[in-house]
Amino acid sequence: MRATVCLPTYNERENLAPMLTALGGVLRDGDRVLVIDDDSPDGTGELADRLAGELAFVDVLHRDRKEGLGPAYIAGFRQALAGSAELVLEMDCDFSHDPADVPRLIAAAEEGADLVLGSRYVRGGAVGEWGLVRRAISRGASLYTGLFLQMHVKDPTGGFKCFRRAVLETLDLDAITPRGYAFQIETTYRVRRAGFRVVEIPITFTERTAGRSKMSRAIVLEAVWAVPLLRLRG
Predict the structure, then answer these.
(1) Which residue of 57, 76, 116, 162 has the fewest CB atoms within a 10 Å radius of its CB?
(2) φ and ψ of 88, to 5 deg
(3) Helix axes of 217-233 and 132-149: crossing angle, nearest 10 degrees
(4) Could you read off the pLDDT of 144-160 as tens digits, one per residue?
(5) Paired sense of beta strands 204-205 and 126-127, if any
(6) Thinking of the domain 3-233, which architecture would CATH place it in?
(7) Helices 13-24 and 44-54: angle between axes, nearest 10 degrees
(8) What are the domain boundaries of the chain?
(9) What sign does the dihedral 169-174-177-179 (CA atoms) show?
(10) What distance in Å separates the CA atoms of residue 38 and residue 222, rounded to the nearest whole number?
(11) Are 171 and 88 a contacting pair, CB within 8 Å?
(12) 22 burial class (0-12, 13-18, 19+ CB within 10 angstroms)?
């Protein structure tokens, strides 16, 4: 099953080349990486084009402006589906998701999962050097989401995922509107509601060492109100 890894970038110039090199070492023949750049002012898009000329498995999708994580992924999904991808993955470009775990997500999908979640909170999962406050926020978000949506997923806010093609073709991508990490909650919720099989596998989430986090108060607040609204909409 051919896989495409969707890799959204905004000011990730320091991480992009090492990430593509690492992915090139674990992907199979025929698998691809789609870099989705939101007009990064630090030159990430230009670097992506140069690397795509050197690495045959890399494609680049340029977007006109920064609109957030959700719209970037939706654009990436559409391009992957327009091609030959049978599996479509999400992952961060900052090495918080380990490229070495990509084959494990692919294997779980090939074994029958419709959506595979790389989970920090199942047995064997972990987070790296987070402080007490960051851990509390993340755990609290999982509990809050579980209370409202009853997805029976341990890590609903995680962004390391592998979708089967049929799942994304079934979802109404135009109806998924969150721009931040609420996007991750909504996509998993919709997959569950559609009756697909969701499997969580343990990963270790590591804090970035280069570049700046895109987390903001606005992203957190979006998730706070988006979760009960999603429940009301069904």
Answers:
(1) 57
(2) -125, 125
(3) 10
(4) 787 778 888 999 889 99
(5) parallel
(6) Alpha-Beta Complex (3.90)
(7) 20
(8) 3-233
(9) positive
(10) 20
(11) no
(12) middle
pLDDT tens for 146-198 read 777 888 899 988 999 999 999 999 999 999 988 777 899 999 999 999 999 99
Q: Are 116 and 3 in contact (CB under 8 A)?
A: no
Residue 198 CB coordination number (10 Å): 17
Tokens, residue 105: 């997500």
Q: Output the CA angle 8-9-12, nearest 5 degrees.
A: 145
CA distances from 36 to 122, 152, 209 (A): 29, 31, 21
DSSP 150-188: ----S-TT---EEEEHHHHHHS-GGG----STHHHHHHH
- How far is the C-alpha of 124 from the C-alpha of 147, rounded, in Å? 23
147: CB partners within 8 A, 6+ apart: none
Q: Which residues of 123-134 are buried (b: 16+ CB within 10 A; e: fewer)?
A: eebebeeeeeee
